[in-house]
Amino acid sequence: MTTRCGFVALIGEPNAGKSTLLNYMVGAKVSIVTHKVQTTRARIRGVAIEGESQLVFVDTPGLFQPRRRLDRAMVAAAWGGAADADLVVLLVEAHRGLTAGVQAILDTLSERTDGQRVALAINKIDRVKSEVLLALTQRMNEAYPFTKTFMISAEKGYAVDDLRAWLAAEVPEGPWHYPEDQIADLPLRMIAAEMTREKLTLRLHQELPYQLTVETENWEERKDGSARIDQIVYVARDGHKGIILGKKGETIKAVSQAARAELEEFLGRKIHLFLQVKVRPNWLEEAERYSEMGLDFKDGNS
């Protein structure tokens, strides 16, 4: 049998369901999923096997109008992921349709990609009636020459297998890039940091999740098979530190417990997780923080 392998970029507006789709495709949670927008920061690669094909999915940050250095670096990473891929899948929310943000993506899609085939995946189809869905499909295909259109629910898994089978048949022939049992092209230190950041994002409100980052400072393997993981939560203001710690440390304790439980399930072993909160007023302007997030600091230049 001929093997195939290729990179598939998932692009779209924030909260379109890219991370949910990636996790479903891979069969494990490798990307942060929350109800808040703009939570994926780096280009996270998840690896899935479909028959003789290996699909390397790139879950890109949502495409939006950037305001800050971090925003600009995230958007640059998203378009970079699309340009580097063999195939591109644009996710659009069925109930939101052809928004101004989606139109902005379509307007620059041709120049940002290098002739790759682009498939359209209309997501969250359970939220609209069939006639709305058909009208949106027609409108989207009139706006851009998509190679193929899929109507899916990434959360419920509806028609996702059809999309994966099509991608498997379309990626180039060639050897696999990763071992069969590898599901993510991310250091475990970064996956662990992302899991903690997700728990913080789910508990915190409004703007604060975008003003913090999590880094894995130390990872110590122990003789009993467990691991000690020390992480730092960087925030921009003293007031933010108090919010994250919570009354009598309740918030940080709950976050630590939730992150540790998910890490133990993901790694299949005992984890000792220790979190520290540090105030760094200018962390959004520090190149080292961007490297830890898998972003290019230079891409944040206006």
Q: Uncertain segments of ≥5 residues (pLDDT<50)? A: none
Shape: globular
**What is the CATH architecture term of the largest domain?**
3-Layer(aba) Sandwich
Number of self-contained structural domains: 2
Report how far apart the termini are.
Answer: 49 Å
CATH topology of the largest domain: Rossmann fold
Function: An essential GTPase that binds both GDP and GTP, with rapid nucleotide exchange. Plays a role in 16S rRNA processing and 30S ribosomal subunit biogenesis and possibly also in cell cycle regulation and energy metabolism.
Membrane topology: Peripheral membrane protein
Pfam family, one: KH_2
Keywords: Cell membrane, Cytoplasm, GTP-binding, Membrane, Nucleotide-binding, Ribosome biogenesis, RNA-binding, rRNA-binding
Structure report:
- With about 300 residues, this protein is of the alpha/beta class.
- The protein folds into two domains: about 5-170, 3-Layer(aba) Sandwich (Rossmann fold), CATH 3.40.50.300; about 190-300, GMP Synthetase, Chain A, domain 3 (2-Layer Sandwich).
- The chain contains nine helices and nine strands.
- The strands form two sheets. The protein has a six-stranded mixed sheet with strand order 2-3-1-4-5-6, sandwiched between helices. A three-stranded mixed sheet has the order 7-8-9.
- Strand 7 (about 210-220) and strand 8 (about 225-235) form a beta hairpin.
- The longest helix is centred in the C-terminal third of the chain and has 18 residues, at about 250-265.
- The model has no long low-confidence stretch (mean pLDDT about 90).
